[in-house]
Specification:
- With 381 residues, this protein is an alpha/beta fold.
- It has two domains: 245 residues, Zn peptidases (Aminopeptidase, 3-Layer(aba) Sandwich), CATH 3.40.630.10; 125 residues, Glucose Oxidase, domain 1 (3-Layer(bba) Sandwich).
- Strands 1-2-6-5-4-3-7 form a seven-stranded mixed β-barrel, surrounded by five helices.
- The radius of gyration is 22 Å and the shape is elongated.
- The N and C termini lie far apart (46 Å).
Length: 381
């Protein structure tokens, strides 16, 4: 049996430890432990590390289900929808446009302009919505919140495996009861920041940004970006370049990028800084890596390094049509950035676990390219 290279083994260990911590919901006990774990690893590099806390109203969910015809379909409430009455909500099921008390729609984790779930949320007719959530593979693929504020009717997300029974019940206008056992409670979440000083005062910093929270274990969705973040930090802390490099890992990704918003609100932004966004699914087992940048030169540099010796094959790479995730916030703020975001058939699903959904050799090649890009940018003043 061939032994895994030491660098690959270290990256795999980082993702494995992150995966084993549990469900990485913002403001949860797991989220807090994970922040301390990441801060400890960052300190081991010799970098200056700080942990910045910010507040939110956290949705504490116990259990929820939709009961109809002797069945009880479990689900998870949509974070930015209001909660139904504690005693439950009863009424007839129906499809969109039927005028039913509880509207049944089909949707996906990523909303689109003609998304049925968004339509019934912004133009509500009934009293509640049940959303059958379709990921690339069967299961309960949860959707991120637009923000920390709620709007529209209560929404319960259920697994795609319940589709046939639910659509049949809705077409027959069956009577149902929606029960959500959840409450909102004050909580805090943390951003982890590690700083490596450069040898020159000019040129602005390089900022390496990765989210560290999400639904379920999110091994590939978040773990790959965290592993790349740490590898680049290790190299730059051991051998600083001319420009300083700041490494930022934010919570609140699944809640309207609340952690990044908190960081931007408390930080004096340097317009000369260059941002590198390590987004979702970096090193996912069956994914393709997408790249988008604020200018052609940053995009060219990223593709050159990714396609270099030992790097990604052309069919593994693509140019994204636009900024997504936290990169969309950077773009909105007018900050120079390059963003790496991959795809995964287990995106936002409970099956996004290590080792099944992580391709360690692919993660290693991407991490090497990202680290080299950080180094090259940090050399320039």
């Amino acid at each position: 049996m061939c032994r895994m290279p030491a660098r690959s083994a270290w990256l795999a260990q980082v993702v494995a430890e992150y995966d084993a911590q549990g469900w990485h919901r913002t403001g949860s006990a797991t989220d807090d432990r994970s922040a301390r774990w990441l801060a400890d690893l960052a300190r081991q590099t010799g970098a200056a590390v700080s942990v910045s806390k910010w507040g939110l109203s956290r949705l504490v969910h116990r259990r929820s289900n939709l009961r109809f015809g002797g069945a009880a379909v479990p689900g998870v409430p949509l974070y930015d929808s209001p909660l139904p009455p504690s005693e439950g909500l009863q009424g007839r099921l129906g499809l969109p446009g039927s005028g039913a008390d509880i509207t049944v729609v089909e949707s996906t984790p990523g909303p689109s302009l003609d998304d049925p779930l968004e339509q019934v949320r912004r133009e509500p007719v009934g009293r509640a919505v049940v959303a059958i959530m379709h990921g690339a593979t069967p299961g309960l693929a949860l959707r991120n919140a637009h923000s920390l504020d709620t709007f529209g009717p209560p929404v319960l997300q259920v697994a795609s495996t319940c589709r046939e029974a639910l659509l049949q019940a809705a077409s027959h206008r069956e009577h149902a009861t929606l029960v959500v056992e959840a409450r909102r409670a004050p909580a805090t979440a943390s951003n982890v920041v590690a700083t490596v000083r450069g040898s020159s005062e000019g040129g602005g910093e390089v900022v390496v940004l990765t989210p560290r929270s999400g639904w379920w274990h999110c091994a590939a969705e978040r773990g790959g970006g965290i592993a790349c973040w740490l590898q680049a930090l290790k190299l730059l802390a051991a051998r600083p370049e001319r420009r300083g490099v700041r490494f930022v890992a934010t919570s609140g990704h699944e809640l309207g990028y609340a952690g990044l918003q908190a960081y931007l609100a408390e930080t004096t932004l340097d317009p000369r800084a260059t941002w590198i966004h390590l987004g979702a699914n970096i090193g996912a087992a069956d994914g393709r890596l997408g790249v988008v940048a604020s200018d052609e030169e940053l995009s060219r540099q990223a593709f050159t390094l990714l396609e270099g010796p030992g790097g990604c094959s052309p069919f593994e790479l693509r140019t994204l049509p636009g900024a997504v995730g936290e990169a969309s916030q950077l773009e909105g703020a007018g900050l120079p950035f390059v963003s790496f975001v991959g795809s995964s058939s287990r995106f936002h699903l409970p099956t996004d676990r290590f080792p099944d959904n992580v391709d360690v050799p692919r993660l290693t090649s991407i991490s090497d390219a990202v680290t080299e890009l950080v180094r090259v940018l940090a050399q320039r003043v």
